[in-house]
Write a structure and sequence with these properties.
This protein is an alpha/beta fold and 284 residues long. The chain has two domains: 189 residues, TIM Barrel (Alpha-Beta Barrel); 55 residues, DNA polymerase, domain 1. It contains ten helices and seven strands.
């Protein structure tokens, strides 16, 4: 049976509760599921408890945005999988990031108000709930207020770089994030390498080699937006460079309706051996 090692709940920018997400994974016969909210591990505490009543195996995780110079709209995200979520340093760093996200969200609202939009922090707080505020929550607020018709429109008109409500996000340096994941006994996995927007497959592999040299453990070869050829290349590149393989849908729920749990856009199937290999690597 397949696994999905990259998902989000409403603790960051997803729309489902941890319980509903795990139950959905169980109903769809996934072998294992990882919750990897952005800069946030709150859902993992709930999911760990809920998973005890299910057959599927649960993996605690997180997704970090990395402060690194890349061309254009390229970006680097790093997954931490199999984390010990009680690690004090991990909790401290995530608390700082959570506070920074809340401050950023307030600044975004203020900029949108100055632009003439009728939005408030109180309205945003209702949408965020227990989670950590982000631009998708602001996009949802703009949809609820009939300012825009879609998340894409919200970003295109108001929230993307150089738009009226854009505020940069606090990010971790790459080495800091890798070291933090390792201190929490987890594996550092490069998320969706397609987002690096390298010119050629060979350029992507060169990038992987560089990341491997500073502690990267693996690469998310299986991903909803990867073509079959790119996935195949990444699998071979991982083997050549002694990197572990991971994979996931990047499921967010109804806010990204084109991406389904476990199958992405219908073209994704992450073999359960991927999970077992990662689990074995952690136990060594």
């Amino acid at each position: 049976m397949p696994v999905d090692l990259h998902t989000h709940t409403y603790f960051s920018d997803g729309t489902m509760s941890p319980e509903d997400l795990l139950q959905k994974a169980e109903n769809e016969s996934l072998t294992a599921l990882a919750v990897t909210d952005h800069d946030e591990i709150g859902a993992n505490y709930i999911a760990q408890q809920y998973a005890q009543s299910l057959k599927l195996e649960f993996v605690s995780g997180v997704e970090f945005s990395i402060d690194i110079a890349l061309p254009g709209t390229a970006h680097l995200h790093l997954l931490g999988l199999f984390l010990e979520i009680e690690n004090d340093e991990l909790k401290s760093v995530l608390n700082d990031l959570r506070n920074a996200r809340q401050t950023r969200a307030g600044t975004i609202i203020k900029k949108l108000q100055d632009y003439g939009l009728d939005v408030s922090e109180n309205e945003l707080d209702v949408i965020v709930g227990q989670g950590s505020a982000g631009r998708p929550h602001v996009a949802q607020l703009l949809m609820d207020k009939n300012v825009v018709d879609s998340v894409w429109e919200a970003f295109h008109k108001f929230l993307s770089k150089d738009r009226p409500g854009y505020v940069p996000k606090k990010k971790l340096k790459l080495q800091t994030a890798i070291d933090l994941i390792h201190k929490a006994k987890g594996l550092a996995i490069l998320a969706h390498p397609i987002s690096l927007k390298q010119r050629t497959y060979k350029d992507t592999e060169a990038f992987l080699k560089e990341l491997k040299s500073i502690g990267l453990d693996g690469v998310e070869a299986y991903y909803a937006s990867h073509t079959r050829n790119f996935t195949s290349y990444l699998l071979n590149a991982a083997k050549r460079n002694n990197l572990l393989i991971s994979g996931g849908s990047d499921f967010h729920g109804s806010i990204k309706p084109d991406t389904e749990l476990g199958i992405g856009r219908g073209n994704l199937s992450v073999p359960d051996q991927v999970f077992f290999d990662l689990k074995n690597a952690v136990s060594k």
